Amino acid sequence: MTSIFTRWIPSVTLAVWSTVLLGSYYSGRLTAFLHPSFRPGVMVAGFVLAALALFVGSRETPPECCSDASCTHPLSRSKAGRWITFLILILPVSIAAWLSPEQFSKQAFEQRGIATDVTGLGPRRVQPAGVPATAATPPGAGKTEKTEKTETTEKTETTVPQSSAPTSKAVVGEAASTAEAATPAPAAAKTEPGAAEPLPDYLQRTPEGYVIVEVLDLLYAVQDSQLRKDFEGRTVQLVAQIMPSKSATGPDNRFKAVRMFMTCCAADSRPVATMVEASPLPDLPEMTWVSIVGKATFPVENGKRTAVIISTSVQQTKPPEETMLF
Amino acid sequence: MTWFSFHPGDFAVAFLSVLLEGIPFLLLGSLISGLVDAFVAPERLARILPKNPVAAICVSGLLGLIFPMCECGSVVVIRRFLRKGLPVGCAVTYMLGAPIVSPVVALSTFAAFKGQQPLEMTLMRLGIGFLLAVAVGLIFQKLPNAAVLQPGADAAGSVSTPSRGGLKIAPAPAGLGEAALDAQGDFWSKLQRSIYSACTDFLDVAVFFIIGAAITSLLGTAVDRTVLEPLAANPLTAILTLMVAAVALALCSTTDAFIAATSFPAFPMTAKLAFLLFGPMFDLKLYWLYGLLFKRKAVILMALGLFAAVALICWRLAILGF
User: Fold this and answer.
1) CB atoms within 10 A of CB A70
2) Contact map slice: B 91-120 vs A, CB within 8 A
3) Contact A181, A174 (CB under 8 A)
4) B192: which chain A residues are within 8 Å (Cβ-Cβ)?
5) Are the C-beta atoms of A214 and A256 separated by less than 8 Å?
6) Chain B residues in contact with A121 (beta carbon < 8 A)
7) Which of A30, A35, A73, A116 should one mutate to test binding to chain B, selecting the residue with the greatest count of B CBs within 10 A?
8) How far is B208 from A85, CA to CA, in rounded Å?
9) Any A CB within 8 A of B321 CB
10) Interface list for B 38-77 with A (CB within 8 A)
């Protein structure tokens, strides 16, 4: 009986944990739960746990080893306690890994409060849809618009590689077919009617010519005049989930395009949204993933600049490979 | 929508993400703990620490700078060191200090608060965190081990122990002394022993980590956070609110600064500082993990003391205009 507790149960437990970690990693489900910087650790831990499971299961525990119940926690000092411990170690994680959806419900979005500006989001850390990671100036930096513009331009020139990844990987299905083929806009096609400036090299376009953006791009553009110039008036494509606007003061033909913004893991993520104007409003259930095509605008409403896409098309699409923004 | 509404799917997403984020760190701590168990004799610990007890505790508070460890990992490591005879004051100081006074935390705090007084926030977090850890360590040093530690948490026979400048370095349990370790065989034998110890530690601590993660995920997904916003207007309620939030959210200290900087835009800097000071020292999962080492009463008293100290310090800073 002793070998069950000192050899087989620990081995099985470690093997189950290893399976959960490696399964999450290699199935791609991990993308819904963790920031990319934490993912390699999960893979390494999965392999280490597998090795430990094999090691512990392959031989009898030495008698002098600390796995003797005298130096473990009180639960492990009785037979019933050891079984309870085993169940706590095995069941919750297995059930969660098996049954967990890959994204939060509408309730979680609402409970966490949907941010529609980046004042509370801090500096950008990771490069999103073709926009340089360092392009946006952190809010509250107290810099003048002129300083922001100069710094942004310099960083754009020095930090964005030609092959910088756009959202292409993050889009699946109909939107993916366009986004995967996205390339930096050719120099000859850089000026778009209605846009104030030629299209900067770092922005990516779909084959139809739409500039690929993420919710965060537009929110940071509200704060950053250089980014705003790059997007304003252009026809953009955005993949997001739809939620009602619920604004008492704004026009009634608007909805929110929402994405979850993750700092470390899904538990700490919070929703961010930009407004979309559509006539008529799309007849789709809340939280549906849509591909929105429309003109990026940044009107001042109630004394505050905001981002609004005047949409020409809102089509249901599959969730992106990375449902979270970073 | 009510302030509390349980959604099983959201709970599962949050629970799994906390586990997936924390388990690699827990495993790392367990592996280090196993190596300590097999390769480090208590006598060596005694030689590392300064003779003066206060100096030893202060050094323990700074060890995170060269031996960084998040709070989950540090509990496992300290558990092993206590069994090796590390004085409880030093152990508590390292346990509370390492998750804050570390280069990883300094860099992440500075980066997260870029544009929001990053240098001040980083220095205050590390400075006040160090002082609090040392203060708690000094208090624990004055208390008898039997009053604060779980039975078996420290080295056996710690009463009649060799002393080094007032610090009692307990003799190792039978078979764990320097000579015994040396006599235990070759490197491979010791490595095997360290692996067994690491597995035991990992499974021991993982149980409580799971319980803590479950409670944290429940609160994190079921409670409507927007109800907190009115509390941000008053400095004291803002500080207390974010400290409670830190307990409930149970974030990792290496990354919690990004949450503090971004998730509570309405709250003042002092409240965010309180969040960053108190969270790594005490939260729901730590309550369970600390229970492996300390008696529940000691854990609760330590938590209340830290809560009061952090709240008062941050409130004072708010009055001073930070």
Assistant:
1) 10
2) 111-116
3) no
4) 62
5) no
6) 262
7) A73
8) 10
9) no
10) none
Residue A106 predicted with pLDDT over 60: yes
Residue A158: predicted pLDDT:
30
Interchain CB distance below 8 Å, B20 and A24: yes
- Do residues B288 and B208 touch, judged by C-beta distance below 8 A? yes
pLDDT at position A256 is 92
Nearest to B199 among A45, A56, A142 (CB): A56
Would you report the helix, strand and coil content of chain B in percent, each value rounded to 5? 70, 0, 25
Per-residue confidence (pLDDT) for residue B117, from 0 to 100:
85
A105 has a chain B CB within 8 A of its CB: yes
pLDDT in tens, A180-235: 334 444 443 445 555 555 667 678 888 888 999 999 989 988 888 888 888 888 89
- Which residue from A259, A323, A288, A325 is spatially nearest to A109, judged by alpha carbons? A259
The pLDDT tens digits for A121-168 are 655 544 444 443 333 333 333 333 333 333 333 333 333 333 333 333
Q: Which position has the higher pLDDT, A48 or B190?
A: A48
Concatenated DSSP letters for B222-252? HB-GGGGGGGGSSHHHHHHHHHHHHHHH---
Residue A246: phi and psi, rounded to 5, are 60, 25
Distance from CA of B91 to the nearest CA of A (A): 18
Chain B residues touching A111 at Cβ < 8 A: 1, 5, 221-226
Report chain A's mean pLDDT, rounded to a whole number.
74
Tokens 């993982």 belong to B206
Cβ neighbours around B20 below 10 Å, total: 29
User: What is d(CA B67, CA B93) in angstroms, rounded to the nearest whole number?
Assistant: 13
Residue type, B181: L
Look up residue B181 and give its two tokens. 């370790």
CA distance A257 to chain B (A): 19
Closest-CA residue to A52 (of B192, B104, B52, B45): B192
Give dist(CA B131, CA B112) in Å, integer: 23
Q: What is residue A248's predicted lDDT score, i.e. its pLDDT?
A: 61
pLDDT tens digit sequence for B264-311? 767 899 999 999 999 999 998 889 889 888 999 999 999 999 999 999
Whether the CB of A263 is below 8 Å from some CB of chain B: the reply is yes
Considering only alpha carbons, which residue of chain A is nearest residue B226? A113
The full set of domains in chain A, from first to last, is 2-102 (no CATH), 107-325 (2.40.50.140)
CB pair distance less than 8 Å for A61 and B196 = yes
Q: Do B23 and A21 touch (CB under 8 A)?
A: yes
pTM, full prediction: 0.72
Contact B7/A105, CB-based, under 8 Å?
A: yes
> What is the rounded distance in angstroms from the CA atom of residue A136 to the CA atom of residue A134?
6
User: CA A265, CA A38: separation in Å to the nearest integer?
Assistant: 9
* Chain A residues within 8 A of B7 when measuring between CB atoms: 105, 107-108
Residue with tokens 């939060």: A104
